[in-house]
User: Fold these one by one.
Assistant:
Number 1:
Amino acid sequence: MPESWVNLAESLGADLHLELTGPGSRRAALLRALREAVRSGRLAPGTRLPPYRSLAADLGIARNTVADAYGELVAEGWLTARQGSGTRVAHRAAPLTPTRAPAHRAPAARPAHNLLQGQPDASSFPRTAWLAAARRALTAAPHDAFGPGDPRGRVELRRALADYLARTRGVRTDPDRIVICSGFAHALRLLFPAVLPGPLAVEAYGLAFHRHLLAAAGVPTLPLPVDEHGADTGELARLDGARAALLTPAHQFPTGVPLHADRRATAVNWARETGGYVLEDDYDGEFRYDRRPVGALQGLDPERVLHLGSVSKSLSPALRLGWMVLPARLVDAVLAAKGEREAWAGVTDQLTLAEFLTHGSYDRHIRRMRQRYRRRRDQLAEAVRGHAPHLRVTGIAAGLHAVLQLPDGATGADEQAALRAARWQGLALDGLTAYRHPDATQPPRHGLVVGYATPTDSAFPSALEALCRALPPAP
């Protein structure tokens, strides 16, 4: 019985795509194809080629033809052949340098110090604890976990989240009202416009990425003024047509203030009276330093507040795991928008996160990172006080960034000058203007948004020194 292609591939070597075209014999065509693959760089120096019997079987030509071609290319210096090592592309057979410049520009030099907000310290990912949780989770997982995914997400994770959010954030829910997604942006895509209508009230300062995502979905956004008490939710009743509001109650983004208790109540009452909904972005709920925990807004009315969270800042954005805690009446609509099977969040990561939560590893990681980030925040505040006492450091009671407010009377030109000075020092950071809604009517604020979480512990002092050199002098 003849061997199948699979058996041949498994027993004789790796696949190699070659097109034998052009004039002359099959041997001549094979030589041309191999030379071109090496010359163009498609076969990099050191690449091991398939045994000649395997390649001959794949191409449907005689074994001697391939063996002769290999021998000739070895003699010419394109290939090398050693006993026990097989036939490989010679290291001196590098691809030819292009004769003309590439059409695209060379990438810009990367900044020396990344102080952009919203990015955790990637070096602090708890690899050992995560690996241990993955082993426990996979060992205990039922067989059906590796079948078609449930669009609600794995029940193990939904149960763990229900317990964790109730304990730490005061969320009132059960596993059947939690839907797993791949992050906050994915939650917005699922909710608008399929589940919730527009327009959407948003805070006058927030991520432009979210506004652009909503605009692409045909959902207009209406800005709410933001001050030292957070979003002015009293303005909700005056926004024409708004039936939903997106807020950051625990830590307004990016100004860093919590939503005042009276304004929290006003937002919930507005949703009750209008039949609308409040979307609670709990992006920094775990990282608090100088204040008592602020409970989730969802706890005031689970049928009118959607609680949205993720692990992008607490663990890593690479995990692509988030959740929606939904009013009961919205669950079916969200599942319909998501589809019949889970297409976004991997089951193994869901199972691992569930184990990470129930085993206490997540709590330990949060406590450890809270201490680390607090030290960095203190170092940042002290450095700014020492080098630029005329700048106010605000929004530092919680979160992963601080706002360095420019003096009263500063303009957008002053902010841009400060950003240019930062770039000159090799710093990547943003100005407050980048987060302002284009339709906001309140006077603009000017300052620098400095993330202190991303650099490693060893790199952070150098980043602070560069920042201090870039800070504007007193007026």
Number 2:
Amino acid sequence: MITDETIVALSTPPGSGAIGVIRLSGKDAISITNSVFSGKDLLAQPSHTLHFGLIKDGDIVIDEVVVSLFVGPRSYTKENVVEISCHGSNYIIQQIISLLIKKGASAAKPGEFTLRAFLNGAMDLSQAEAVADLISSDSQAAHSVAMNQLRGGFSTELNVLREQLIHFASMIELELDFSEEDVEFANRDQLQDLINKITMVLNKLIRSFELGNVIKEGINTVIAGRPNAGKSTLLNALLNEDRAIVSEIAGTTRDTIEEVLNINGINFRMIDTAGIREATDTIEAIGVEKTMQKISHAAVLVYLFDVVNMTAREIHEDINSLYRPGFTFIAVANKMDLTYNDRIKELDLPLDIAFVSISAKENKGIEELKELLYDTVVGDKLSESHTMVTNIRHVEALRKTQESLHSVSEGLINPVTSDFLATDIKQALYYLGEITGKVTTDDLLENIFSKFCIGK
């Protein structure tokens, strides 16, 4: 899949700016750039150096630039890499790229620079995917998880286990060569211990996906409740700005309003919804229907109720209708500025749901609600494990590895011949290899790297 072509692309975001960075990679990257560069002879310069000069098309000066040289294998792709920093005019950038293509370069495809880094052994596949996660990270937690994966935290752990499993696979393969002599080179008890150990690690990684995925994508958090409970006021208080219209008229919110709230580095995608009640007109009915749709897809539901005007029966009815297994439910008593805590005791709320009392209007209890949101969803899970799975492709491969190892374990409990054990172990090794790129196909690589931005 590696070609001799030298590729070129704009690596900075398109559009006018102070500078644009044009990147080339390939064996001819330096010579192609040198053919249009007026300044020092780039072919005679050492790696990791900067050079000021002109980009010229014949006698026509296109721009003054700074050229950065990275001589392979000491580069991102392990090939010769050149980065041209020019003025950020769209016209200038396109003129330079067109000139470089005329001189022999080819336009890069999405993710082709990182694909070459993977194919040339600069990083494994899970690290390459972490590059895309790092670029798209929009919170401290997402950045930390992507950086850990980029530095090999995930793949290092898997490779250690894979090497141990390869050892047993080779021992069992050896048994097949001596099948007529009925000898065992692979200690079955040690193999079972290794399978138990790997299974524990796989379970931990698979469980980490639930948190890892929401860190990567953000946590869908729906604020729901009856009309005039104060949902829009709460959203404004959480965001510390007037984002939603606030009115004493019930049913003001007809459509959902979505904003991102960052709490301790975690992005909560806050969704203010229409009040839940029998709609009085068609538009409100659509709003209520959208509310129920948002609730069904929520990771966290913040049920806000008017602690003054609602009866305990009404609150219990709402909780019973809204609560469902599989998501975090937080009950929030609003308008505590108008009542006393004794009122909460009268409501007899279920003990198995998180609860906090606030006054959205007076901005009281808002920080406590933020802490409860974070603790309920994240808590100390980030400190429990530095290795976290955020990619659905990885978690699917881990589950398939688990299934194959279960078959190996079954074959040890109910003894089968070495060839069956070898087949199941090879299958487990295959799925582990898919994660880091020990096993790849062109279709898999195209699917992964086509999602990258051009220039990376």
Number 3:
Amino acid sequence: MSRVSKPYEIVERALELSTTDGLVVIADEHSSANLRWAGNALTTNGVTRGRTLTVIATVDGAEGTASGVVSRSAVTADDLEPLVRAAEAAARGAGPAEDAQPLVSGVPSSPDFTDAPAETGSEVFADFAPALGDAFARARSGERELYGFANHELTSTYLGTSTGLRLRHDQPTGTLELNAKSPNRTRSAWAGRSTRDFKDVDPAAMDAELAQRLRWAERRIDLPAGRYETLLPPTAVADLLIYQLWSSTARDAVEGRTVFSQPGGGTRLGETLAPLPLTLRSDPHAPGLESAPFVIAHSSGDSASVFDNGLPLAPTDWIRDGKLERLTTTRHSAALTGLPVAPAIDNLVLDGGGERSLEEMVAATTGRALLLTCLWYIREVDPATLLLTGLTRDGVYLVEDGQVVGEVNNFRFNESPVDLLSRASEAGRTEKTLPREWGDWFTRAAMPALRIPDFNMSSVSQGV
């Protein structure tokens, strides 16, 4: 074993090797465990381990500060000096970085910085796997087939800088996706969950939910495209609002390129976006959705800057009581726009004050409405309005006077999440959810179901 092998030792040694004006070192220790199943039987399982090291070198020059970023996996002590030199060479060969700022300093060190990385393994499924087996048995007796996967990742991030920062964060991320199909594969239903440790997921309850949806789908009703009162479940609301968050950079808004730009100049900050008392917020300490309490930026972009690494994060309201409160900024873009520093945070919560569950919202429906399962293949059509298009998937159901009466065809939709917030007539109870479309990149979300009086189903889709 190499004499320098522990993550904090790798960080410290890389900093010692630096010959440039500044250095940021990020060591990510990854571990994961997964289960996959098909046709009511486990198919594969596995456990992986890995390390990624990112070195960010900065060089001060007469025209400004340049940066160079190099990331490599499976780094050992022998790889350190070539990696640091490569980052330094990249910095010396680059022009001044537009987002250059002094490296963050003065943040208290993490007390566990020198501790071994946290790891996950197959034991994370100790209670879940037997419960899943019971769900398989119930599904077989009910003549349905379960497919899906469970994945748990744990990343320990060690962040060190030449300005003295020594920070560490452990991030667990668990996802569960369960798909039920009828024996002839003509009916399909999906459910997903986000979890930190698989102790709060119930395969039996998910299977029961899917069984009900398959029963609903026994009656098929064809509907044309059009505008329908629609109940968006929390997973669909999350997918739409995550995209909205990604599109809410202050600089783009100030420069007139987004839905948050004010016609004639400026931004829409302070404008009422929703008549309901909706608050869209991020908080690194949100219970059950905890995320890194400081900036971890492996590269610079519209919403992140490598110079901000280690910057403490605080609870942030993006929309408060229906009014646009904050747009995302780095220190650089905050200085450019004159707006407060508000870095992106890796979770998102929408509160609307509602108390009804999705089932209760269905029961309270008068007349006709559509109940969606989830959205997928979401793409941007027009950044100026944040018009998105996408498809419904794995079940669209017709509600008549509080009862689900059958499954209808899938649709392509055209909607802007900002516009949807302005038209929502009811928000349900906020609950943890797994985004279907963005679950590979963003899992920590809590959303209510939303009732939209006139959701735009622009065309009929043949997707399932």
Number 4:
Amino acid sequence: MKNILIIDDEEKLRGLLARIVKSEGFDVIEASDLKSGFKKLEQNDIDVLLCDVKLPDGNGVDFLQKIKASFPLTEVILLTAYGNISDGVQAMKNGAFDYIVKGDDNDKIIPLLYKAFEKVQLQKKVKQLEKRISDKYSFDTIIGKSKAIEQVIDLAKKVAKTNSTVLLSGETGTGKEVFAQAIHENSSNASKSFVALNCSTFSAAILESELFGHKQGAFTGAIKDKKGFVEEANGGTLFLDEIGEMPLELQAKLLRVLETNEFIPVGDTTPKKSNFRLIAATNRDLKVESDEHRFRSDLYFRLNIFEINIPPLRERVKDIAPLVDFFVDKFSYSINKKTLQIEDTFLQKLEAYHWPGNVRELKNVIERAVILANNDVLTLDVLPYEIQHQSDNQNKSMSAFSMNSVEKLHIQKVLNYTKGNKAETARLLEIGIATLYRKLDEYNIQ
């Protein structure tokens, strides 16, 4: 519906204008003064307001401020019998879409209405998009009912209201980026940019360019100036994932940005400024990394203003059932399948599994299961082999003198040495990654 409100105390002129506007397919509501006009605005969803400047109970130019404060999406076109430059200037300053003279500019009214309506529709779409984005990343959409996840959400809500740097720690796949986005969307800079960069994805040279940008000709392939993520995040939030993988030389440059809000693009000599909130994430113990000189201690202390540790899925088993329900609904809908029922044994196996890949792994398992399901129920046969055939003796104690006990202890030591890096552990043990995962299942190593 295209709703137009006309406020004019001249009944005949108002009626004529209403008939013209209605003939173009707009729905018209009429009012004779500012007081009744404002009531109409409160009672109806008005897209465009045509308002006379001189009215019995006030001036339309002054009234405009009240309208824009209460109904920011409503566009206002002011009508006056006598053109006045100062009034016209003030009207535009107060937020009028346009200011036209009755009689002289009658032929402009209908084209202006269409333009104003187009602007309203665009503004509404932007608002809807912003709401969808904020809803997607709100804390209410983080799924879980365990005490552990509720405590994490409570901490994140508290720090979201500040501009403090946040360090999100936890294993891979626990949802650190989801928390980072939720913190941003619930902060005072939610309307500004949220930019995310994974520090483990690039070499040191490319990562520096991605972070700080570069000047044309700074290196081979730099055919034009490029903004970096630090500059793109100005006024908003910069999320640096896997910050523990950042090379030491870049850590020093990042620390300078955090301390001074200044950075220098690659190949440039002139500093630039960027004021942003930093949220960093890591699956490493940065305290240990800094103690062993693999991470700068000064940067660690700068990052560790407010740390939130997101517990692994195996420590919040209560969250598995609601997560499974959510993913089943999501993937059933995405492939136009009727929402599937979940067999008790299917869920029991999922709750017994140790989930080395955490929520991300659970999501992938459920997507696969939904695709493979041949009927309306998810059963054990659509689960991966390692989940179906979890060892029944996982929790049984073993002799300290058995070969199995020695092997388990050795695997644990190597895992500790690699900080939980499975690929590196398999390489040092000189076994395949699949064999390592089988051993982890067999010995219930988490």
